[in-house]
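Give me the 3D structure for Beta-lactamase family protein.
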Amino acid sequence: MLLRCSAALLLFSSLVFAAPPVPDAGKAGLDAAQMQKIAPRMKAMADAQMVPGTVTLVQHNGVLAHLEASGWADIEAKKPMRTDSIFQIMSMTKQFTGAAIMMLVEEGKVRLNDPVEKHLPEFRGLWVIASETDGVRTLRRPARPITVRDLMSHTSGMGQASPGLGDIMVKMDRTLAEACLIYSQQPLDFEPGTKWQYSNAGLATLGRIVEVESGMPYEKFLETRIFQPLGMVDTYVSLPAEKHSRLAALYDRKDGKLVKAGANVLGGDALQFRKGAKYSGPEYSLYSTALDLAQWYQMMLNKGSLNGKKLLSPSSVEVMTKVHTGDLKAGHDPGVGFGLTWAVVKDPIGTLTGHSIGTFNHGGAFGTYGWVDPKKELVGVFLVQDDDDAKPVRDAFINMTNAAVLEPSKQ
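Predicted structure for Beta-lactamase family protein (411 residues):
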C-alpha cells in the first residue's frame, strides 16, 4: 500500500512539475532561421527601454515553435523575465467571459438575443440619452432593450463608468453584483446596435449573467469550466500567495525612463496583489502566463476542443469570431470589426502586420496581446507589463512571426 502511494505521489509530482515543451520551429513548419531573429530583437527593444521585458510565444499546426523571455520582470530588483512569469492580462479577460456566456448558451440557459433584463431584472426600464446641451440632458426610452449580443459586441450603448462607483477598477472595493446594480441605473449613451463603444461595464454585466445563470461565482465558473479542463495551472482572478514572486512588475514612463507604476492604475499597485479586493472584474481581472494562454488559443483554433476536452462547439466558436458590427467603426486597431468579445480582422489595412483576414485577437491595457490566425493555423502570444505604449514592440513581434510562415495561407 505504501509503495502504491509513493508511486502515485511520484507520478503526481512528475505531472505537476513537468518541464515545458521544447520549442521546435522546424517541426512546427516555420522558418527556423526567421524565428531565431525574434528573441534578439525583443532583447534589443527591452535594452533600449522601449518595454521592461517580454515573453513571446508562437504555436503553428499545434506545435510549439517559439517561447522566449527577454528583459526584466523587475528592473530595480534585477529580476530577469522568465518564460513562466505571470502577467496581468487585463482586457484579454473579456474573451473568457464571452466563452462562459457561450457555454450557457449551449446549455439553453441564455440566448444571444435575450434582453439583458431577462437575466438581470434591475436592467428593466433603461433610458437612453436623447440630447445633452449646456449641461442639460434629455432622456428617452430606447427603441428596444439591450441584449446579450449587444454586450458581447460592445454595441449596447453602455458607457465606461458610473457615478457612485468611484474607482472600482482601481480599488476593486465593490462586489460584481453591487457594481452591476449601479450600472443598471445609468442611461445608455446611444440606441442599442447603432454604434460601437468599448464598454467595460457591459462586459462586467455579462459576468454577472454568468453568476446568475450558473449559480456560482464568476471566478469559480472560469476555474472549473475553463482553466481546469485546459490545464491552465497559472491563470487566476486572485493570484495565490505562493505565486506572487513570479508576477512581472508594471511599468510606466517618467521623463522618458521606465519607472514602476503607482497605485492609481487598473487593479492598483501590481505588487500589492490586489489585497482585499471584492470585485471579480469579468472585464479585466485575470492573471496568466504564455503557456496557459497558448492552451486557450489552441482550443479556439481547434474550434472548441483541446486534448480530448470539449469546451465549446464549433458553431459557438464560429459565431464568436465572425464580425457582428457590420460597417460600424469598431475596434482599437485599423481594419478590424468586432465579433462576440473578439476583435476580427476584416479589411486589408488590418493585414499590415501579416495577419490574415479572419484573424481574431484581443489585447489588454498593459500591452498584452494574443491572436489566432485560422488560415495560417497560427497562435501568437505577446506578454508585457507596460502602462504606456508597447504597440511598436508588439507589432515587431507579429510581423516577424508572420514572416516565418512557409506555406501559403488556407483560403
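The chain is about 30% helix and 15% strand. Let me know if you want a second pass.
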